[in-house]
Amino acid sequence: MSLEIVGEPLFEIRPVAWSAPDPAEVDALLIGSANVFRHGGPQLDKFRGTPVHAVGRTTAELAESAGFTVERTGSSGLQSLLQTGGGTSPGIRRYLRLSGAERVPLEVPTGVVIAERIVYDAAPIAIPPEFERMLRAGGIVLLHSAAAARHFAGECDRLGIPKSALRLAALGPRITEMLEGEWGDIRHAEAPNDAALLALAKDMCQDR
């Protein structure tokens, strides 16, 4: 898309010890992040015969590469996947949701039961000097989560980075709700996926 993009981590992902329930009591795994398969550890092996309902394509691809069978792949968040999957799929009534410590709350459809286990955590890290210098020069910042938005805004306050020089493109409206202050611009993508977020970023570049 002819966009010049620099990636910068705001968190260090760390595994969390967890205890798996009886696989016989789980009809499907509900997975909202590829980090589950990166950091879930040996407990995941107990569920290799359990179908995966993945939030998106990246998560589904990593699940398959880890030896799991993906039954459903969503495109607009776990809640939508749950409504169209758990509410109507025959035999799928008992989910095991594997997630990070910070996760989006879900409305559980009638007749569906969700057990939850936290398998990883995201520890915030400080913005390094080189990235700080880039931010002071201004630009468009893409944010993928509410936690990232909170931490990024806090780091800008801590370092005294002028918010007015930064334009923010968020993956969804829940993220923009976390952003306060005199930013240059705040917008969210039309759909919660990278293609829509990049399209928004390109539009914001052209608006410049």
UniProtKB/TrEMBL annotation:
Gene3D superfamilies: 3.40.50.10090. Transmembrane segments: none annotated. InterPro entries: 4pyrrol_syn_uPrphyn_synt_sf, 4pyrrol_synth_uPrphyn_synth. GO terms for biological process: tetrapyrrole biosynthetic process. GO terms for molecular function: uroporphyrinogen-III synthase activity. Signal peptide: none annotated. Coiled coil: none annotated. CDD domains: HemD. Residues 8-198 form the Tetrapyrrole biosynthesis uroporphyrinogen III synthase domain. This is Uroporphyrinogen-III synthase. It comes from Allopontixanthobacter sediminis.
